[in-house]
């Protein structure tokens, strides 16, 4: 157990620690697929039994890192085109993406539940360009905190699976309505995974995954465009690279319908 901050989080908020731990595990490797020294630093500052609670699975850590890298590429591409744009991270938890891809000019807004926002504020204090707004991602108040003048990308990494399908559609529709021309990047678990989590059948060592009401297979990506008429682009973002057997299997997994996916939406 590390010394320092002692978080006490509820079931879904605790997933912020799970993803942080696995990114840090991967980042510690000399052959890592995701350079994330800030994640390693944070784990060292948090008083929590990470390994006892979440295990030490190299596969899970690499897959989490590859997912994060998909979002990193989308954000980096957005900032290349909109260097002073705003990146809104809904349900960001203790994600350290800003330390991986920030260009020194962009603005970042973290939106998360008050208990997670308070923890993030203590561990990663906000500044003029990095702000934290404590509220649910489904609460439209956060939208008033965004200046869309220089472009907007909305990232929902590791969030939507914990919402109900109706909430997912409503969130996409609200963002499309409020931020014309913006990008919206999401990830989804397949339906079988969602069902197992909701039935309480996803357990690893001492960790029980929370229910995941929203699941989506690859052939359903196009349905996201029906959330609002302004959703004019739907594009899957495939993981790249990988190490060992994962690198070999990624092209094969990409052919499966029931697979995890990262999807980028474009609003007119």
Record keyword descriptors for this entry.
single chain, 268 residues, alpha/beta, Rossmann fold, 9 strands, methyltransferase activity, Class I SAM-dependent methyltransferase
Residue windows where pLDDT falls under 50 for at least 5 positions:
none
The chain-level structural class is alpha/beta
Mean pLDDT: 95
Task: Let me know the CATH homologous superfamily.
Answer: Vaccinia Virus protein VP39
User: What is the number of domains?
Assistant: 1
Shape: globular
Rounded to an integer in angstroms, the radius of gyration calculated over CA atoms is: 18 Å
**Element order: H for helix, E for strand:** HHHHEHEHEEHEHEEEHE
Helical amount: 25-40%
The end-to-end span amounts to 48 Å
Strand order of the largest sheet: 3-2-1-4-5-9-8
The CATH topology annotation reads as Rossmann fold
Describe it for me?
- The protein has 268 residues and is an alpha/beta fold.
- The chain has one domain: 3-Layer(aba) Sandwich (Rossmann fold), CATH 3.40.50.150.
- Helices cover 36% and strands 17% of the residues.
- The protein has 9 helices and 9 strands.
- The strands form 2 sheets. Strands 3-2-1-4-5-9-8 form a 7-stranded mixed beta sheet. The chain has a two-stranded antiparallel sheet with strand order 6-7.
- Strand 4, helix 7 and strand 5 (183-188) form a beta-alpha-beta unit.
- Helix 1 (15-27) packs across helix 2 and helix 1 packs across helix 4.
- The longest helix has 24 residues, at 58-81.
- The chain is globular, with a radius of gyration of 18 Å.
- The model has no long low-confidence stretch (mean pLDDT 95).
